[in-house]
Specification:
Two copies of one chain form a homodimer. Chain A is α/β, with parallel strands linked by helices. The first copy, chain A, is built from eight helices and ten strands. Helices cover 45% and strands 17% of the residues of chain A. The structure holds a DNA duplex.
DNA sequence: TAGATTGTTAATCGATTAACAATC
DNA sequence: TAGATTGTTAATCGATTAACAATC
């Protein structure tokens, strides 16, 4: 185990992926796995996997590999999943409701404490067992409860303002679903942005690029043979 | 402009962020910006920004910087936003509905063509102007329409199976919202996974780590001075 | 014991940053 | 013209991969 070496964000972001895979393996009754097999099934090199783990401890055994259940438990510990965290949700629109109704907070060790909105038509409604509160009560609420994180699901145009208010009220971590970049400035507040748009635009780029490459390839073929290549007829 | 150099995924994933910022700048009436200013406001170095752009062309002007509107237009072109793409959505649950009702597909140059579900209670319903179709008609539908991408919003346990079916039916790009990893195998199919869980677990890790660091810091302080440090009273 | 596979150190590769000539 | 800032090349830094001794 390496000490005093900064662990890269890349490594941290691979941990949930490992955990997901290990959980599936365990469900399938697999008891042991080597870094070679794990890497193979996830598209990582065995070296990378062993490097990643080595930052946190010695979880494997020479000649054997890793015990799936134990390794899973270790990663859960690294991610802090042995501790429960609490959260509040701001903005009970579609995405907010989708999270409240569908997202498995328990799986992530998070307890959703409260949800807020400013729409009188929503305030007082119950969504998945949680009564929607008036956002005007936010400051009063935070005087008593100290949630570990705030989930931001409000419309983009009010996101920055509300984030600032939340930080001023003592919130120290924000999970941001709005299409607006939230930054912590020079504070210790942690922000995780989940930009749907960025994700889709990235995918679009690669689609457009693949299509271009195909056209180029076809043109090249056409120039050299004088006929178009046959395409498999899938549709 | 560099030619024949593979452009890294890191660079591609920064482009939407740049675009977002430029769009905001334009709204604010800003006409020109230097790589220095742009980097400053986004947390990137000027070098990185110039490097990123240099893969695609010469968008700036010495002594001036970048024309906000032109640069925005150039990035939109790089991302292929000048072409329209079409999509279908699978699974009209909460997250599916949230996307249909709230997500700005137009902004991303995507037209949502159709939505499918298997629930008879949902089939035939209209969501944001789109009639929910029976998933049983999927194959027939894809015989005529050839959407550029499929948006996967079905429950985790059927995600892999449906993804396989979509690929068999000729779908070549998948935007995956399920908590299950979708892989393209060795096909040319492009998959963009948007794992809410991974994002939250990453945030959780950093929260837990910060809390730990604070405890350590406080203990160190306690050992050296014999008294606890004063904490700002925010709540 | 022999084979397998770890954890770690060293080598390589790639991405970021720095520097600077070109030029608006 | 002088100052500013690009685009690009070179230097640095960090992350990934390879190699291998340790050991189960």
């Amino acid at each position: 185990m390496k000490k005093n070496v900064k662990i890269s964000d890349n490594t941290i972001r691979r941990l949930p992926k490992y955990l997901r895979k290990l959980s599936n393996l365990q469900s399938d009754g697999v008891q042991r796995i080597s870094s070679f097999e794990l890497g193979n099934s996830l598209g990582n090199t065995p070296s990378q996997i062993r490097q990643d783990f080595s930052h946190f401890g010695n979880f494997g055994q020479q000649g054997y590999g890793y015990h799936v259940e134990n390794l899973q438990e270790s990663i859960r510990e690294i991610l802090g999943l042995d501790q429960q965290m609490s959260a509040i949700l701001l903005g009970v629109g579609n995405i907010g409701q989708a999270l409240m109704k569908n997202f498995d907070f328990t799986l992530c060790g998070v307890q959703l404490q409260a949800a807020f909105d400013i729409d009188p038509g929503k305030i007082g409604n119950t969504v998945n067992g949680l009564v929607v509160r008036d956002q005007a009560e936010l400051a009063a609420y935070l005087k008593n409860a100290k949630p570990d994180l705030a989930i931001l699901c409000v419309p983009s145009d009010v996101a920055v303002e509300l984030a600032g208010k939340l930080i001023a009220l003592g919130i120290e971590a924000i999970w941001n679903f709005t299409n607006t970049e939230i930054t912590a400035g020079d504070s210790e507040v942690l922000v995780e942005n989940l930009h749907f748009t960025d994700s889709l635009l990235t995918l679009r780029y690669y689609i457009a690029k693949r299509n271009e490459d195909r056209v180029k390839k076809e043109e090249k073929y056409l120039r050299s043979t004088g006929s178009r290549p046959k395409r498999p007829q899938l549709f």
